[in-house]
Amino acid sequence: AQERLGSSIEAHESVPAALYSFLRHPESFEGAVSFAVRLGDDTDTVGAMTGAIAGAFHGYAGIPQKWLRPLENGAKGRDYTLSLADRLFDRWQATV
């Protein structure tokens, strides 16, 4: 299946590639995203979509700390982004 998938910026290739990457490694955020990036072509698009899917499945705790630690933490850095994510989730939860 991997040979038949494209992974260009075109949605008809990148979306299936991201889904396939996640489904190949549903147990691991790192495994899914790493697999997606190794597909080649438009790696940032496919990797980002795979990360979004894996992140929704695993949550923040599924993201390897070795990937989080080096992130910049300025005024709009890691802590701000995590706080924003919490606020958005709380706001969404209040509507359901």
Proportion in helices: 55-70%
Number of beta strands: 0
Distance between the termini: 38 Å
Order of helices and strands: HHHHH
> What's the pLDDT, averaged over the residues?
92
pLDDT under 50 segments (min length 5)?
none
Class per helix and strand makeup: mainly alpha
Tally of separate helices: 5
Give a nutshell description of this structure.
The chain is mostly helical. The protein is 62% helix and 0% strand.
Can you characterise this structure?
By secondary structure, the chain is mainly α. It has two domains: 2-63, no CATH class; 71-96. Helix content is 62%, strand content 0%. It contains five helices and no strands. Helix 1 crosses helix 2. The protein is globular and about 40 Å long. The mean pLDDT is 92.
Write out key terms for the chains shown.
0% strand; 62% helix; 2 domains; 96 residues
Helix-strand blueprint:
Layout: H1 11-24, H2 29-38, H3 43-58, H4 65-68, H5 78-93
Helix pairs in contact: 1-2, 1-3, 2-3
